[in-house]
Design goal:
By secondary structure, the protein is of the alpha/beta class. It folds into 2 domains: 119 residues, no CATH class; 239 residues, P-loop containing nucleotide triphosphate hydrolases (Rossmann fold, 3-Layer(aba) Sandwich), CATH 3.40.50.300. 50% of the residues lie in helices and 14% in strands. The chain contains 14 helices and 10 strands. The strands form 2 sheets. The protein has a 6-stranded mixed sheet, sandwiched between helices. It has a 4-stranded antiparallel sheet with strand order 2-1-4-5, with helices on one face. β4 and β5 form a beta hairpin. The longest helix has 54 residues. 25% of the residues are buried.
Length: 383
């Protein structure tokens, strides 16, 4: 019920735009009825248990009073002894009733935590080796060697097939291709969210499978297409890029990302609550928060995943200015559908159906023809 409510409220504009208010209200009512029915069954069972305990307790006390009263009349038991016995019996009965309440609460907790126990028992596929390799000083060199990878849920066709390329320190490399070509999969392998079934991914000369994932990811910064903004203030959101960063460092990163101009104008400045999932910010402002986070991290390898694709012209200019400063003197991989944003890259890799079909500069690839030339013609010449 809570999940349905949260999902609908978060997407309320989409709900209203598609006229789904009545349908979602009916769906929520169904979830409420299910929750109420479950609560009623629990309360009914608890009421029967409570009634049974009370009946047994008072029946036992009645039997004790009847039997003890005869003993008092016969002189074998004093009235004080009978009163003490009844008093202690009531205490024991109350404790027994409390135990039944505790057992009921424990059963509820066990049911609620069943899925949590399943998660805790799950063994992650990506773990640090027993003796992780020692990484050299960060340079930002990235190498793919005959990498083949298929997602576990979809083994065929493979997402990447025999991909090989080398990115030199400080080089700016763009990755282009149609949707589903494998561009984002490359980033997921670099971050070691998955391991390839064949080949190797090397960062600064070290196979990332032999290193601690935390050490690998500490050298990487990413600006995603849809950045995550947490439900807190700007200090915490930007400071997420580097644990223990000082306020001065966070402020400098915000200024470098052109985020200071809108953050300083908020009612409480950087202390302003940014809303659930950053709902109080525009798309361009979220992107600049993500860029400030990456600047604060100061990575040797930067991953840009369609960082300006969904922005208007004004926001794109500000974000692109911030990105230019961020990319300076560091290795950068850029995923882009809009070729105009990657024309000045040192090199462009063209992916199609999981294969590297071409590589070169913008002008070289246009002159060669092929997939990149067709994409360029569609975007720059309108077909």
């Amino acid at each position: 019920m809570s999940s349905a409510a949260e999902e609908t409220i978060y997407g309320i504009r989409t709900v209203q735009a598609f006229g789904h208010e009545d349908l979602d209200r009916a769906r929520f009512n169904t979830e409420v009825e299910k929750s109420l029915a479950t609560a009623m069954r629990r309360i009914r069972a608890r009421a029967w248990l409570t009634a049974l305990v009370i009946t047994l307790v008072f029946s036992a006390i009645g039997v004790m009073l009847w039997s003890g009263g005869h003993d008092v009349l016969d002189g074998t038991l004093s009235a004080g002894q009978l009163s003490a016995f009844v008093f202690y019996a009531v205490l024991v009965a109350g404790a027994t009733g409390a135990i039944s309440e505790v057992i009921g609460d424990l059963q509820r907790a066990a049911g609620a935590t069943e899925r949590i126990f399943d998660l805790l028992a799950a063994v992650p596929a990506i773990t640090a080796p027993v003796s992780p390799a020692v990484l050299p000083p960060p340079r930002g060199e990235l190498v793919f060697e005959q990498v083949k990878f298929a997602y576990p849920a979809r083994p065929e066709p493979p997402a990447l097939c025999d991909i090989s390329f080398n990115v030199k320190p400080g080089e700016r490399v763009a990755i282009v291709g149609p949707s589903g070509a494998g561009k984002t999969t490359l980033f997921q392998l670099v971050l070691r969210f998955y391991d390839p079934q064949k080949g190797a991914v090397r960062l600064d000369g070290v196979d990332i499978k032999t290193a601690d994932p935390k050490n690998i990811r500490a050298r990487i910064g990413i600006v995603p297409q849809d950045p995550v903004v947490f439900s807190t203030d700007a200090w915490s959101n930007i400071g997420y890029g580097r644990a223990g960063a000082s306020p001065e460092d966070i402020l400098a990163a915000a200024k470098a990302a052109h985020a200071d101009e809108f953050l300083a104008a908020l009612p409480q400045g950087y202390d302003t609550y940014l809303g659930e999932k950053g709902v109080r910010l525009s798309g361009g402002q979220k992107q600049r928060i993500a860029i400030a986070r990456a600047i604060l991290r100061n990575p040797s390898l930067l991953l840009l995943d369609e960082a300006t694709s969904a922005l208007d012209a004004e926001s794109e200019r500000l974000v692109q200015d911030a990105l230019n400063g961020l990319m300076r003197d560091r290795t950068t991989l850029i995923i882009a559908h809009r070729l105009a944003t990657v024309m000045n890259a040192d090199r462009i890799l063209v992916l199609d159906q999981g294969k590297l079909v071409a590589t070169g500069t913008h002008q070289t690839l246009v002159n060669e023809g092929g997939l990149y030339a067709r994409l360029a013609a569609l975007q720059f010449e309108g077909g």
